[in-house]
Amino acid sequence: MISSRFILPSILCFLQLSGAMAPAAEQSKPNILFLFSDDHSLQTIGAYGARLSEFCREHNVTPNIDRLAAEGGLFLNSFCGNSLCSPSRAAVLTGLHAHANGVRMLGQAITPGVWMFPEAVGSAGYQTAVFGKWHLGATPPGTDFARLLEGQGRYWNPNFIGADGKLENHMGYVTDVIADMGLDWLKQRDKSKPFLLMVHQKSPHRPWMPPPKYYSWLQDVKIPEPPTLFDDYAGRASPAHDQKLEIGRDINMRGDLKVFPPGKWEGEFKPMTEEQRAEWSKVFEPRNEAFRKANLQGDDLTRWKYQEYMKDYLRCVKGVDDNVGKYLDYLKAEGIDGDTVVIYSSDQGFFNGEHGWFDKRWIYEESIHMPLIVRWPGVVKPGSVFTPMVQNIDYAETFAEIAGAKAPDGLHGKSLVPILRGEKPSDWRKSVYYRYYGPGEGVAKHYGVRTERYTLAHFYETDEWELFDNEKDPQQLHSVYADPAYAKAVDDLKIELARLRQVFKETDEVEAKQPAQVGGE
Ligand code: CA
After folding, report:
1. Hey, what domains does the chain have and what are their CATH numbers?
2. In whole numbers, what is the pLDDT of the chain averaged over residues?
3. What is the 199 CA–ligand 1 centroid distance (Å)?
4. Of 191, 287, 301, 357, which residue is 20 to 30 A from 104 by alpha carbon distance?
5. Is this structure's pTM higher than 0.85?
């Protein structure tokens, strides 16, 4: 769905003006700043050529992330192997798919003893820290310093797991709190050593609680609707019909859309102070009152829900982007921007109304795509656009190589460093393995393979298959699995899928032996 032809002309102009690349790092090892967010889609990043990218550029939604892309490289084909928070985070940390690292579902812990990159980077002489969302049960972070959100974490006045497992409460809005904690850690660092800093934002995860300074932002703007907002799922197998993630039907009116009687605070509003609630009420109570009076029905109601969901989502994204800017400014002010690799990514993609959906979980395009942007002065040519198929399982080995740390043999991923250097490895993967183990939002368990052109999915509980020709059907509306014209493609893809499952030693038996811990979403 994305191609390099969509890249912003203004970014290209910037590149021409930017002249020579920054001087090579003076210290022998570069700092690593990993800015990671939660559920941030490609569609809502200006630098990508996705559905809402143009809107995001017009409305200045992600100027700092876009700046990072202009000064670094943008991966167009970056995928997760399981579109869910905990599994993607475990894959990032270990370089292994879910069945091998132990995290198939939400809140599970990485199997003790499995290698994780932060500890290896620390052993290579780095001072290391992680702040924010973790969501990996009792998995230790393996860093010198950590403040991790308790469980899923909350938007207001969040609790963090501090030293010795004690809870620390921090007042404020979560995105700013996490970013500021990381900046404070940077300010007290030992400047004689390189650092690895991981800033894991909770935003823009559901229920999309925006930062106060953007409560009114986009209020009178119409967010472009996707052509598939009223998808009827014809042309697809039963799982697409049976899911429970439709904006019109399934989005939560109170928690997600925040329409409830005045004063009846619940969910994410409970931890807020009276002052924080008053600030919210000033803007949103009039909106809710107008909504109640309008008494919308049917498609009009779905359209209203889409608009309000997307506005809160984009406000959250804007809050994340502001804090990306804070870090870029800090690195520059410290004079270490030339010595620091900055990575922006998110744990998976997200549906922003495509197919009428919110959420993720599917192998389908909006869900499986992860944003991935890397600025590495002196190594990544500014404005680079990388097209090889990469995955979250590649991050761990990449960070290890940047730090000069040793990664063990047998990881499922590969270091991205050769690609970042502008090389074109001839043996690079031509397909990506995907598996969603459920449960949640009525999305059926499935595994599949995504190649440069096709997506093949097997919903194994009902033994149904889907095949999408993403070149001819980028919106993935018509499965061509049963079309005789695609019989050869189906055969080839099934062989490739079986090969991947064999290479990664993935079996159904593994799933049956380890019942999942389930909770949250
Ligand atoms: Ca997530």
Report:
1. 76-422 (3.40.720.10), 445-503 (no CATH)
2. 93
3. 14
4. 357
5. yes
